[in-house]
Design goal:
This protein is 20% helix and 35% strand. It has helices spanning 12-23, 61-74, 122-125, 138-148, 163-174, 193-200, 260-264, 302-320; strands at residues 2-8, 29-32, 48-50, 59-60, 78-80, 84-88, 93-98, 102-113, 117-119, 135-137, 155-159, 178-184, 207-209, 211-217, 224-229, 242-245, 248-251, 255-257, 289-291, 330-336, 339-343, 346-348, 355-362, 366-375, 378-388, 394-399, 410-417. It is globular, with a radius of gyration of 22 Å.
């Protein structure tokens, strides 16, 4: 099988990338999805709050996904469900398999990686205690409750205050469970401010910052969980323990880009994000292989996933049409002094028509700051922020139409405290 573009992943990133590639002239496109339906994680996100930027209205996750699924089908873009990609070679040859066609060998002119991310499990955070039933990741619990129709427990403790954990605190409360506490290792929440307010504070659910689980009790099923405060080195402080009798512990302790396929293709990864290093076109270190969405870096809003994925789709279509300038000046983009990372990591100046959108996260909670962009010691842009937090991604559009890098091949972005 031969295709112009193969998109791996049929979630919000893959759908947006495939549609945008078709709109930009690519004809022969295939989307490969390992689940039984298109839409990815959005299908289990039945709460609202999606689409405010993209559609200027508030949608649920399934509603947001359905708009792209309908457009994909209307365009006649081919897709395969229940199909697992098991290998990508450097020459863009894909090996996949499903239960009806068996082993598939697919050759692509360009590939777009859109596999999303996965949750960290109990093994990743090494919680002491027994190993009873009732310890689940928040995303797994969300699927059980919202799609499969199973209630996962009646008395629940949640470790981690990422967005999924916060949303499940509200969801389980609405389903009749008693959510006893949300414990967060860091001194700040990892979720959006709106989710902290709407999902925890509005339901009087205690949020314990700088706390972690130090013990799980139970044989067949969780019977109790003990949390404790941690010091500045994130070590539990004796004498601060709080014990909760419960039957369920949900883990919302971080997301990891799903990058086994990325590694197998020999693509260079970023140590901070865990995703591939990409340029302004969302192209990875392997020519003709692009990446977008949570497989690159974990986003807080699906609207930003859509925007980034459209860029990948346009770029892939441009690449197969031979319209990409490859031999041109490239500058690196780095986050320093409070900025954990920046995407894209590199910018090829001749391929930027005018502006490039930079996405980044800060490493702490800040108030009254400036995000300062510099090159060669000179400030090229400043953006004021009254509030910035690790749980909320920052987006900055940088106009490069008049930018001259001079002797510098790097752009730096840092946090600078506003003067009183």
């Amino acid at each position: 099988m031969h295709y112009d573009i193969v998109v791996i992943g049929g979630g919000p990133a893959g759908l947006a990338a495939a549609i945008e590639a078709r709109k930009n002239g690519a004809k022969n496109i295939l989307v490969i999805e390992r689940d039984r339906e298109l839409g990815g994680i959005l299908q289990q996100c039945i709460h609202n709050g999606f689409g405010l930027h993209t559609f200027k209205e508030e949608l649920t996750g399934p509603e947001y996904a359905e708009r792209f699924i309908k457009e994909l089908i209307t365009m006649g873009i081919e897709y395969k469900l229940d199909t697992m990609v098991i290998e990508i070679s450097g020459n863009k040859a894909i090996t996949a398999m499903n239960s009806t066609e068996g082993i598939l060998h697919i050759q692509a002119k360009a590939i777009i990686l859109a596999m999303g991310c996965r949750e960290r499990t109990r093994g990743a955070v090494r919680i002491p205690g027994t190993r009873p039933a009732g310890v689940l990741t928040a995303g797994t619990a969300q699927r059980f409750v919202n799609i499969e129709g199973y209630m996962i427990g009646k008395r629940v403790v949640i470790l981690g205050s990422g967005d999924i954990g916060l949303i499940m605190a509200r969801r389980l409360t609405l389903e009749g469970a008693d959510v006893l506490a949300v414990a967060e290792l860091m001194p700040y929440s990892g979720g959006l401010t709106r989710n902290i307010v709407q999902c925890v504070e509005d339901f009087d659910i205690p949020l314990y910052l700088s706390h972690t689980v130090v013990s799980i009790e139970g044989n067949d099923r969780v019977k109790a969980v003990t949390i404790a405060q941690v010091d500045k080195n994130l070590k539990p402080i004796k004498g601060t323990e709080k014990r909760f009798e419960c039957d369920t512990l949900l883990l919302s302790v971080g997301l990891i880009p799903e990058n086994e396929l990325t590694k197998s293709a020999g693509i260079e990864l970023d140590n901070v994000t865990g995703g591939p290093i990409v340029n302004e076109a969302m192209e990875t270190s392997v020519e003709g292989i692009f990446a977008c969405g949570n497989v690159v870096h974990v986003h807080d809003l699906v609207d930003w996933v859509t925007e980034e994925s459209k860029r990948a789709g346009r770029s892939a279509a441009k690449y197969i049409a031979g319209k990409t300038e490859r031999n041109c000046k490239t500058i690196k983009v780095k986050g320093i002094n409070g900025v954990r990372y920046v995407v894209p990591h590199q910018i090829r100046l001749d391929n930027v028509e005018r502006t490039v959108e930079l996405m980044m996260r800060v490493d702490n909670v800040y108030k009254d700051i400036k995000l300062v962009i510099k090159s060669g010691g000179e400030v090229i842009k400043e953006v004021k922020r009254s509030h910035a937090a690790p749980g909320e991604m920052e987006n900055i559009k940088l106009d490069l139409s008049k930018f001259t890098p001079g002797d510098s091949d790097e752009i730096y972005i840092e946090v600078v405290k506003e003067e009183a």
